[in-house]
Specification:
This protein has helices at 6-14, 16-19, 26-29, 37-65, 75-94, 96-99, 104-111, 123-132, 153-163, 168-177, 189-211, 214-235, 237-245, 253-264, 272-303, 315-324, 329-333, 349-354; strands at residues 183-184, 187-188. With 365 residues, it is mostly helical. It starts with 5 loop residues before the first helix and ends in an 11-residue tail after the last helix.
Length: 365
């Protein structure tokens, strides 16, 4: 019996015979080989492998978030795996640089061999979108049918199963809504923050009245009043409910308050982990948008304003998804409700003590 070499062992472990023989350029079979078709195939196969890894990480993350109360010890792996997804997505964006080394003419030369094949049919990417929280009703219509209409039955089943279970968006919304400290004993964050905002705006109004007059004063007072109404709306549950119906907000009122609280008081020891989580989530959403934008430009570069492979509208459709397929847009919008640090209300000393770690410095009793 022949002893296996280290290469044999490595090759078997990595299943290299399957991976390295899975590229079959159709232009070769047609007798008119196009050199860059190999790059096109390898590029998309690598994408699908990274998509598989993202789904694998989401399995673990969502499993930990599925409990009614998330164990504190689960936060470290959640943050680690979310950060891993972020880094993978950075790679996905930067990989487009490699495909852009392919001249448009090369793509035209082998495009006929793709038939109706299209990146739009990547069921793993559609599953990632669904698992993160992109809802069916929020998707831009294409092909005059549901986005998964042309996928294999098994792929459709996986996507519909994901739609029947809480998405990461829903899980994070529920987790944020349970955040302690936002309402603690006699302290209510929304009341304290609203009072601080009104005080800041009152000061702006006084300064405007002292330094401006006529149309300039009227315009400044109008802006201050609009700002007051904007801030009041985010702290009013009824106004928030209407804003949800109007599509302004998607997150629940409690989750939104908690996200703002965490963002503002992120340096408090107990909030540093939650703030990292919100940062990773916004990174994921930003990188998805960045990838969609780069993908749209790539398509425009290769096919101009023509239809994309598979029959989509190509560049136009992809550019629409950049803004309309955002999932965690609410977390970005929170920046509109930040005020200068000097105007922030201080936390009650007892609450601040509660937000320290147990082994940290405690107030003398």
């Amino acid at each position: 019996m022949t002893k296996k070499t280290h290469w044999d062992q490595y090759s078997e472990y990595e299943c290299l015979e399957k991976i390295l023989t899975a590229q079959h350029p159709r232009s070769d079979k047609a007798g008119k080989p196009v050199h860059d078709e190999m790059l096109f195939i390898v590029f998309h196969q690598v994408y699908e492998l990274w998509f598989k890894q993202i789904l694998f990480e989401l399995d673990d993350i969502q499993g930990r978030f599925s409990s009614d109360v998330v164990d504190d010890r689960d936060m470290q792996p959640i943050l680690a795996y979310l950060n891993r997804i972020v880094e993978i997505m950075r790679q996905l964006v930067s990989m487009i640089d490699v495909l852009e080394t392919m001249p448009p003419q090369s793509f035209v030369d082998f495009r006929q061999h793709l038939g109706t094949a299209s990146g739009f049919q990547s069921w793993q990417f559609r599953l990632i979108e669904t698992r993160l929280g992109l809802r069916r009703e929020d998707r831009i219509p294409v092909f005059h049918a549901d986005f998964d209409h042309e996928l294999k039955e098994e792929s459709q089943k996986q996507i519909r199963a994901a739609e029947q279970t809480p998405s990461l968006f829903t899980q994070i919304d529920n987790w944020l809504a349970r955040t302690p400290f936002v309402d603690w004993q006699d302290y209510a964050f929304h009341d304290e923050y609203r009072a601080a905002v009104h005080k800041m705006l009152d000061t702006k109004k006084e300064m405007a009245e002292q330094s401006l007059s006529g149309d300039g004063l009227a315009a400044e007072l109008s802006l201050i009043e609009k700002g007051r109404q904007k801030f009041d709306a985010i702290f009013d549950p009824a106004a928030h409910e209407q804003a949800q119906k109007d599509g302004v907000w998607r997150m629940s009122w409690k989750a939104l308050q908690a996200a703002l609280f965490i963002t503002i008081y992120r340096n408090e020891p107990i909030l540093q982990g939650p703030y990292q989580l919100l940062t990773h989530i916004t990174d994921v959403d930003e990188l998805l948008a960045r990838w969609r934008y780069r993908h749209a430009l790539l398509v425009q570069r290769m096919v101009g304003m023509g239809a994309g492979t598979g029959g989509s509208s190509g560049y136009g459709y992809l550019m629409e998804t950049v803004t309309k397929h955002r999932i965690f847009n609410d977390l970005f919008s929170l920046s509109s409700y930040l005020i200068p640090s000097e105007s922030l209300p201080a936390l009650p000393s007892q609450l601040s003590t509660q937000m320290n770690y147990r082994y940290g410095k405690q107030d003398d009793k």
